[in-house]
Amino acid sequence: MAISASTFLAVLSFFSLIFFAYSRDFSIVGYAEEDLVAEDRLIDLFESWLSKHGKAYDSFEEKMQRFEIFKDNLMHIDRVNRKNKSYWLGLNEFADMSHEEFKAKYLGTRPKRRDHGGAGHDAGNGFRYSNVVSIPKSVDWRRKGAVTAVKNQGQCGSCWAFSTVAAVEGINQIVTANLTSLSEQELVDCDDNNHGCNGGIIDYAYSFIVNNGGLHREEDYPYLMRENTCLQKKGDLEVVTISGYEDVPPNDESLLKALAHQPVAVAIEASGRDFQFYSGGVFTGPCSTDLDHGVTAVGYGSTKGMDYIIVRNSWGPKWGEKGYIRMKRNTGSREGLCGINMMASYPTKDA
Ligand SMILES: *[C@@H]1O[C@H](CO)[C@@H](O)[C@H](O)[C@H]1NC(C)=O
Ligand SMILES: *[C@@H]1O[C@H](CO)[C@@H](O)[C@H](O)[C@H]1NC(C)=O
Prior knowledge:
This protein is an alpha+beta fold. It folds into two domains: 85 residues, Orthogonal Bundle (Helix Hairpins), CATH 1.10.287.2250; 226 residues, Cathepsin B, Chain A, CATH 3.90.70. The chain has ten helices and nine strands. The strands form two sheets. Strands 1, 2, 4, 5, 6, 7 and 8 form a seven-stranded mixed beta sheet that branches. Strands 3-9 form a two-stranded antiparallel ribbon. It is globular, with a radius of gyration of 22 Å. It starts with a helix and ends with a strand. One 2-acetamido-2-deoxy-beta-D-glucopyranose binds next to loops.
């Protein structure tokens, strides 16, 4: 339905009065059917969403365009939530972005297949956890103090740096009992084997850290959300080092063995529309295994007979479960859900 600018404004002011006391929690969705057919209700939802997320547009035309996208996303969210899946979607801060736009801005990175002949320090030098025989039923490295607060990559394809750094912060805390937030920007700016905001390979990032003598603290080399000149002076202020890294054999059992000992960097396919709006629960797909996003697995567990891996994303704390997603494991495929088993790796650190 096309509405003119003046009609839009008139309707808007009218209904903002009527629905003044009308509020809802956008993170747990369960819309009444009537909300989704009446344009005025939709305008109200959009306005509430705009104020909740502090959004404003440059022009009325843009606002109208965003409203159309918002409605389309809302219908998708509603359709999925009505299926009573084990996960649900919500009108998060990405609700005014089309899926194409979202993918271009927040993914856009294509980690290549693993390359053992690369610049790796001890790549392919084995998997130290292969002989592990018993692991706990559940593990959550957040509870053990090995995980820093969720970060936000913004509109820069630097997920690979966030994924690597979280794994390094984890092993550093486990070995030294000191949780220190480290610099993604140093990797974005200085790791010439990777591509800054245009993607990167986690194993190359570990190699950079080894050869560089460590990473700066986050506060000494803060995140800019864009590529900048490398400001690092070798050895200067590099506070946290690693010894090397190892790749996890691509199967559920090996990933759990590694996860029982430390957070693990993983690559997944996150280009599905449901990933954009994931709000909570155990994610079961749909997704394929065309890896396009680096994240960090920080634990595993089970709920209501469903096994999952706890995955830390880098889209800020408002996305998903306070920045995390629980992804189903034991799917029966070797690759794991969204390919999570295919490119898992972790840093090593000698005590
Ligand atoms: C989903 O769950 C709700 C509430 O439990 C129920 O009313 C509805 O019929 C269910 N829908 C489907 C498609 O299973
Ligand atoms: C933890 O490590 C960082 C980086 O080396 C250091 O600045 C900080 O003082 C350490 N904290 C403690 C409590 O030792």
